[in-house]
Amino acid sequence: MIECHTTVHTKRAAQFLFKLCKHFARKIPVDFDAQQGVAHFPFGIGRLYADDATLRLEAAAADPALLARVCQVLEDHLQLMRRAENAALDWQPRQP
């Protein structure tokens, strides 16, 4: 598995985590609570972590193309909820 992550600074992190997890749970298995969530996409895994000031998104998949797909799904849905058009997230590879 290869992984990447990004962080969004927002005081609404817990709210975004809850909304994203509830939304994804309509179609895929999702486990979540107030501080973290795991979305089990058919093509990879999305993890979300919320604290008072940040929402951290992590993506994992078997190959770069699938990883890009997980990142894109997480980013697109978050941007819709944030109403932040063209505010691309800065995804970073996981350091070994």
CATH-defined fold name: TATA-Binding Protein
Number of domains: 1
Kindly, what is the distance between the CA atoms of the first and last residues, rounded to a whole number of angstroms? 12 Å
Q: Give the count of helical stretches.
A: 2
Uncertain ranges: none
At the first level of CATH, the class is: Alpha Beta
Give the radius of gyration: 12 Å
Helix % is 25-40%
Query: What kind of oligomer do you see?
Result: single chain
The description of the largest β-sheet is: 6 strands, antiparallel
- Secondary-structure content class: alpha+beta
- The assigned CATH architecture is 2-Layer Sandwich
CATH superfamily: Alpha-D-phosphohexomutase, C-terminal domain
Strand order of the largest sheet: 2-3-4-5-1-6
DSSP strand tally: 6
**What shape does the CA trace take?**
globular
Name the beta content range. Answer: 35-45%
Q: Would you write up a description of this structure?
A:
- It comes from Chitinimonas taiwanensis DSM 18899.
- This is DUF2218 domain-containing protein.
- The protein has 96 residues and is an alpha+beta fold.
- The chain has one domain (2-84): TATA-Binding Protein (2-Layer Sandwich), CATH 3.30.310.50.
- Helix content is 32%, strand content 35%.
- The chain is built from 2 helices and 6 strands; from the N terminus they run βαββββαβ.
- The protein has helices at residues 13-24, 64-82; strands at residues 2-9, 30-32, 36-41, 44-50, 54-61, 92-93.
- A 6-stranded antiparallel sheet has the order 2-3-4-5-1-6, covered by helices on one side.
- Strand 3 (36-41) and strand 4 (44-50) form a beta hairpin.
- The radius of gyration is 12 Å and the shape is globular.
